[in-house]
Structure formats: C-alpha cells, structure tokens
TrEMBL record:
<protein>
    <recommendedName>
        <fullName>Adenylyl-sulfate kinase</fullName>
        <ecNumber>2.7.1.25</ecNumber>
    </recommendedName>
</protein>
<keyword id="KW-0418">Kinase</keyword>
<feature type="domain" description="APS kinase">
    <location>
        <begin position="6"/>
        <end position="157"/>
    </location>
</feature>
<comment type="function">
    <text>Catalyzes the synthesis of activated sulfate.</text>
</comment>
<dbReference type="GO" id="GO:0016301">
    <property type="term" value="F:kinase activity"/>
</dbReference>
<keyword id="KW-0808">Transferase</keyword>
<dbReference type="InterPro" id="IPR002891">
    <property type="entry name" value="APS"/>
</dbReference>
<comment type="similarity">
    <text>Belongs to the APS kinase family.</text>
</comment>
<dbReference type="InterPro" id="IPR050512">
    <property type="entry name" value="Sulf_AdTrans/APS_kinase"/>
</dbReference>
<dbReference type="Pfam" id="PF01583">
    <property type="entry name" value="APS_kinase"/>
</dbReference>
<keyword id="KW-0597">Phosphoprotein</keyword>
<dbReference type="InterPro" id="IPR027417">
    <property type="entry name" value="P-loop_NTPase"/>
</dbReference>
<keyword id="KW-0547">Nucleotide-binding</keyword>
<comment type="pathway">
    <text>Sulfur metabolism; hydrogen sulfide biosynthesis; sulfite from sulfate: step 2/3.</text>
</comment>
<keyword id="KW-0067">ATP-binding</keyword>
<dbReference type="InterPro" id="IPR059117">
    <property type="entry name" value="APS_kinase_dom"/>
</dbReference>
<feature type="binding site">
    <location>
        <begin position="14"/>
        <end position="21"/>
    </location>
    <ligand>
        <name>ATP</name>
    </ligand>
</feature>
C-alpha cells in the first residue's frame, strides 16, 4: 500500500487553548497537499452531533473519548489520516483507544500538545479560563478538573516555544519516521 493510502489516527491531547485544533488543521493542509485523505474530528463539532447531550463529568468525557476513538479507528482502517484535537484528559480512556487500534492493527499516534496552563489561560480562545476565574464555570480541565499528561506520548510539542508550522512539520516528520507519510 502507498504511504498516502495508509490510514492512521493521530490524537492531539492537551489543555483547552493549547493549540490542538490549530496544529491539527495545519497538519491536515500539508497532508492534503501531499495527496493524503484526511479528516479532522473536531471536539466541538463532535459534541454538537455524535456526542450531543454529553457534559464534562469524568463519565461523559470518557464516553466522548471512546466514541471519537471508535470513529477515528474506522476512518483510519479505511485509508484516512484521522486527526483528533480532543482534550482526552484521562490516561485510561486514552489507553483504551490506543488498545482498540492496536488490536485492529491500525496505526495510532498520541501527541501531547504541552502548552502550560499559564499560556493557555492567556490565549483563552473561548473565554473559559476567564469564566472559571470569575466563578461562572467549574470543572475546567487543567484548572479545577484533572488533566493527566501523557507519560510517554509518541511526540510532545512545546506549542508555546515554537510556531504552528514548526509543530506541523514535527508531526509530518514523525509520520514519515513511522512510515505513514
Ligand atoms: N469544563 C470544561 N473543561 C474542558 N473543556 C471545556 C469545558 N467546558 C467547555 N469546554 C470546551 O469543550 C471543548 C471540547 O472538549 P473535548 O471534547 O475536547 O473534551 S473531553 O476530551 O471530552 O474532555 C473544549 O475545546 P478545546 O478548547 O478546543 O480543547 C473546550 O473549549
Ligand atoms: N505556537 C502556537 N501553536 C498553536 N497555536 C498557537 C500558537 N501560538 C498562538 N496560538 C494560538 O492559540 C490558539 C489555540 O487555540 P486552539 O487551536 O483552538 O486550541 P485548542 O484546540 O487546544 O483548544 C489559537 O488562537 C492559535 O492561533
């Protein structure tokens, strides 16, 4: 099979405003330009459709992550690069997704977008950190809700120390190293 036809799930985990979505779309653009089939499973869109009605309790986040992992696995098994910019705060939910992929023989890469909370809270794309600080929201990942950082991701990106294009290039290099691009 050609590298372009080889599917894979690339999961970008990290705090809100870490840069997961921005980096995923930058990578998607580069992969598409190279002729790969790509889907970005955007967390917000998934929560509007596939995971409508789920909240941010541990159980709901777990359900959300498993559902997304299932869909990404289907896409990846059919030649698509499935890019998943979703927080996935719990190590055991992420491990379950990885295990499902491994059992199916589908390539899976975990990427930690490791922007520190101090930087994320300044970026605050959706105003969530400000709302939490104002007491209008509780259970914000990385602030008053857990984020279990991956102990051994396939790649850790310091998205506060390098630009978006550099991060996308590092991801492309990883895919190439693994025989996926
Ligand atoms: N309480 C709380 N904690 C964390 N995130 C919150 C919360 N409330 C809303 N949001 C926004 O929901 C976006 C999607 O979350 P995810 O589906 O990626 O989260 S999870 O994996 O199910 O935990 C997530 O998107 P990103 O900012 O793109 O990460 C948040 O902006
Ligand atoms: N080096 C960088 N890498 C990624 N995003 C960055 C970087 N520097 C600034 N940003 C900005 O930070 C924000 C990250 O938002 P987003 O990608 O939606 O994060 P997430 O999906 O992790 O919540 C965007 O507005 C993006 O333009």
């Amino acid at each position: 099979m050609s590298l372009r036809g080889q599917g894979a799930t690339i999961w970008l985990t990290g705090l809100p405003s870490a840069g997961k979505t921005t980096i995923a779309y930058a990578l998607a653009e580069r992969l598409r330009a190279d002729g790969h089939r790509v889907e970005v499973l955007d967390g917000d869109e998934i929560r509007e459709f596939l995971s409508a009605g789920l909240g941010f309790s541990r159980a709901d986040r777990d359900t959300n992550v498993r559902r997304i992992g299932y869909v990404a696995g289907l896409l990846a098994a059919n030649g698509v690069k499935a890019l998943v910019p979703v927080i996935a705060p719990y190590a055991d939910s992420r491990a379950a997704v990885r295990e499902r992929h491994q059992k199916a023989g589908t390539p899976y890469l975990e990427v930690h977008v490791a922007t520190p909370v101090e930087v994320c809270s300044v970026r605050d794309v959706k105003g969530l950190y400000a709302k939490q600080a104002a007491g209008e929201l509780t259970g914000l990942t990385g602030v008053d809700d857990p984020y279990e950082a991956p102990a051994a991701p396939d790649l850790r990106i310091a998205a506060h120390e390098q630009g978006v294009h550099e991060s996308a290039a590092a991801l492309l290099a990883l895919l190439s190293e693994r025989g996926l691009a």
